[in-house]
Design brief:
The complex is a heterodimer of chains A (237) and B (527).
Chain A lengths: L1 E10 L2 E11 L4 E6 L5 H8 L7 E6 L2 E2 L4 H7 E4 L11 H11 L4 H14 L15 H13 L5 E5 L7 H16 L3 E5 L3 H7 L2 E6 L2 E7 H5 L4 H10 L3
Parallel strand pairs in A: 3-8, 3-9, 6-7, 7-8
Antiparallel strand pairs in A: 1-2, 1-4, 4-5, 9-10
Helix pairs in contact in A: 3-5
Chain B lengths: L1 H17 L9 H33 L7 H27 L4 H5 L5 H34 L4 H35 L3 H28 L8 H4 L4 H10 L2 H31 L19 H14 L2 H7 L1 H16 L4 H6 L5 H14 L8 H5 L3 H6 L4 H30 L4 H28 L8 H6 L2 H25 L3 H24 L1 H7 L4
């Protein structure tokens, strides 16, 4: 579903991502972990077409993000680490804005707004301007906007930051549902417990280089993910 | 601690002047350029004021109206400082970004409040100096002060900013209070601004009429007893104590009232959760729109929900209306004289020129990329072509500004008695200029975005895109009026056609760029 081949992105002299190759298949939930500044956000933004990259190629469902970014973006839902939404809109206007852009039918959007609004307990606040929302509410609205068009690929940067425990649980359930329906999820996180419990596969990045990737069992074996991660962090790359 | 707070305010103020892109300090060349620009503007206004007061003093020295230049100087100072400080006062005192940070620290709120007032007071002194200093110097040279008059002049200079600051503080407090109680804040802010702007235009009109008319023959004695300005001018001119005491009372009483009222409620205003009217969400089938219309509506909403956006970039629309009224009042009565002198070819040109000039001050598209800033990721991550985003912003500009321009053209066409052909020519040429203004502003906004702002006013008032759109638009407008003027000797309609073609070609060029290099540039913004 997502095919990253030899991705290299340089900021000035610094290689933020260095020759990274990764494949995320349909139905897979892939966690992406690494220290601060390792290159996670750069990789994620490159997949979503938000960052131009120097070398390599990225394909989403077989379509190149460089050659056909619009077609790729139709298949993707992107959730940034700090969702700055349009403060001048109300929650419902923002969801409609996204639904209009993705061409979601009137019936589908009504049904999905009702479903996810109730699920994340935000329905009563949808008429309010986004400027009055707390960080957690903005995060919930961003999640609903990502789910409203039923994406094939969900790419998230630190999706659990700012969410309350119930919303975290519901998001994890929704992520599982997307994967069960043949979608693919790629997300970065610092919460190793979550990655360990819900992900099929894992990639660890350090100083822009992919140092380990594969199934959870292959990477951690009998150890905890935390100890494996800390061990790998101590090795020189 | 107080010194530190004051120093911080000035540091913030100068940082906003000296910082360039991404919060980095400007280059030395940039700093020199900014200094030269501000020095030029300051000197330009000062010398313009000096020229006005020299001519007035020369005409009135030794007459019973010799007080009048100082009365006028006080009127201009009060108008300038009051008009210029209501919204900065509101921003500095009630809406300052560091309010929460400072009140969370062990700092007495009184210190925070007073440091803000002192900062504003110093700014008011600077504004006052531009007008009052040349007025005082001119008066001293051409008319001359008495000893008491000179002492009172110094005291008046010190007192004036207290009056304007106290009035602007009270008005700012009132605006904040009203805005916190009502749902449609944007409407109230724009409405209040329109009132202040109207008062300012009225004041400016009065000042203009004084300088233009033969002031020696006009009876100005009524100004002698005019509250504040008359009392101040008499104290300065003749050294009269009673008018000075009245002036002193007018300055000090509101200052004490404002200080007591605001100092007591300052912390309460900042810490009270501003009660906004809660909008209840009703589940319903929302209206479905196409992708492009969705983008246009988003831009319209962005414009309509920001009073700062409306007031800064939509001001040209108001100017188009004002210019139209001015032409109806000043030119229409002498229309027959113009026709009788064989200059009737100039009438459609006047109609075209005023609407075109007013429309060149509309800059809605220019800051729209800068305003995306933190939200830019949304448009960049959505499956929309960048050129659609740019064209939606252009369309928003056109939709908002074109109706007022067309209506003004029709009114002027009727009022000036133009033929249907000439009226249609004005409408078409003006429309072409409006469309070009939208494209040109968007082009500059795309090439020179400003993403280093904390307060949206910075994106709306500063940066090359804004200056370029404003001055470039005016220069372009002048060129187009020049083309129309040259062609008017043959036919105005022909001139309008050429103007339309030139603007059409320029729009086509920019439109093509949006589809090619512009797409790439938009995709790479903020990288």
């Amino acid at each position: 579903m997502i095919d990253i081949r030899n991705l290299t992105k340089t900021y000035g002299q610094k290689k933020a991502v260095d020759n990274l190759t990764l494949h995320i298949g349909a139905g897979e939930m892939y966690a992406f972990i690494g220290h601060n500044g390792a290159g996670k956000t750069t990789t994620i933004k490159s997949i979503c077409g938000l960052l131009d990259f120097d070398e390599g190629a990225i394909y989403v469902d077989g379509v190149s993000i460089k050659d056909n970014p619009i077609e790729c973006k139709r298949k993707i839902a992107y959730l940034p680490d700090n969702p700055d939404l349009y403060d001048f809109m109300s929650g419902i206007k923002y969801l409609n804005f996204i639904a209009n852009i993705f061409g979601v039918s009137r019936e589908d959007r009504f049904e999905r707004i009702k479903k996810y609004g109730e699920m994340f307990d935000i329905t009563k606040d949808l008429g309010q301007p986004i400027s009055s929302y707390s960080h957690g509410m903005k995060q919930k609205l961003a999640i609903i906007s990502a789910l409203i068009h039923e994406p094939k690929v969900l790419i998230m940067d630190e999706p659990f930051v700012g969410l309350d425990p119930k919303a975290t649980f519901l998001l994890k359930e929704e992520m599982k549902r997307i994967c069960d329906n043949g979608g693919a999820i790629f997300f970065s996180t610092h919460v190793l417990d979550v990655a360990e419990k819900i992900c099929d596969k894992l990639a660890i990045i350090k100083n822009g280089k992919l140092i380990r990737s594969g199934s959870m069992d292959e990477i951690k074996g009998d150890e905890s993910l935390e100890s494996v991660f800390l061990e790998l962090e101590d090795t020189n790359v | 601690m107080f010194k530190l707070l004051l120093k911080t305010r000035f540091q913030m103020f100068f940082a906003s002047m000296t910082q360039g892109k991404k919060g980095k300090n400007r280059t030395t060349g940039g700093k020199i350029g900014m200094t030269i620009l501000f020095a030029f503007l300051g000197l330009y206004v000062t010398f313009a004021m000096a020229a006005l007061f020299i001519s007035m003093n020369l005409a009135l020295a030794g007459t019973e109206n010799e007080f009048f230049p100082l009365a006028l100087a006080l009127l201009i100072t009060l108008t300038l400082t009051l008009f210029g400080s209501i919204f900065p006062t509101k921003t500095q005192i009630f809406d300052s970004k560091d309010n929460e940070l400072l009140i969370s620290m062990p700092i007495p709120p009184k210190y925070i409040f007073i440091s803000r007032l002192v900062f504003l007071l110093i700014i008011n002194y600077l504004l006052e100096s531009i007008v009052l200093v040349p007025a005082i110097i001119c008066f001293a040279i051409f008319t001359g002060f008495t000893l008491m008059g000179f002492i009172f002049t110094l005291l008046v200079f010190i007192l004036v900013p207290f009056l304007t600051l106290s009035v602007s503080s009270l008005l700012a407090w009132l605006i904040s209070l009203i805005a916190s109680k009502i749902k449609n804040k944007t409407f109230v802010t724009v409405f209040l601004f329109a009132i202040f702007f109207g008062a300012y235009m009225f004041g400016a009109g009065m000042i203009g009429s004084f300088s233009e008319s033969d002031i020696v023959t006009v009876d100005l004695s009524g100004f002698k007893n005019a509250p504040v300005i008359g009392w101040g001018a008499r104290a300065m001119t003749y050294g009269e104590a009673v008018p000075f005491l009245l002036f002193l009372l007018c300055c000090i009483a509101p200052a004490i009232l404002a200080y007591l009222l605001l100092n007591r409620s300052f912390i309460k205003i900042l810490t009270t959760k501003k009660g906004s009217v809660r909008v209840k969400y009703k589940e319903k089938n929302e209206k479905v729109s196409g992708m492009f219309m969705t983008l246009v509506k988003k831009e319209m909403k962005r414009f309509a929900t920001s009073s700062a956006y409306i007031l800064n970039e939509g001001m040209g629309i108001l100017m188009v209306i004002i210019f139209t009224i001015m032409i109806c009042v000043t030119v229409v009565p002498i229309k027959q004289d113009i026709i009788d002198t064989g200059m009737d070819f100039i009438l459609p040109l006047i109609g075209f020129g005023v609407v075109a000039f007013g429309s060149s001050m509309i800059m809605i598209s220019a800051p729209s990329i800068s305003l995306e800033d933190k939200n830019l990721w949304i448009l960049q991550s959505l499956p929309v072509h960048p050129h659609s985003v740019l064209l939606a912003k252009v369309c928003c500009h056109i939709i908002i500004s074109l109706p007022a321009c067309i209506v003004s053209c029709i009114i002027l066409g009727v009022a000036l008695g133009l033929s249907v052909l000439d009226t249609a020519a004005i409408i078409i040429a003006t429309s072409a200029l409006v469309v070009f203004g939208a494209y040109f502003g968007m082009f500059l906004g795309l090439c020179f975005p400003k993403f280093d702002w904390q307060n949206e006013n910075v994106a709306l008032k500063q940066g090359f895109a804004i200056f370029g759109a404003m001055f470039g638009g005016m220069i372009w407008c002048s060129l187009m009026v020049g083309v129309a003027l040259l062609m008017s000797f043959i036919s105005f309609a022909l001139g309008a056609l050429i103007v339309t073609l030139i603007n059409g070609a320029a729009c086509f060029g920019i439109h093509t760029y949006f589809h090619r290099g512009g797409e790439r540039r938009f995709a790479l913004l903020k990288q």
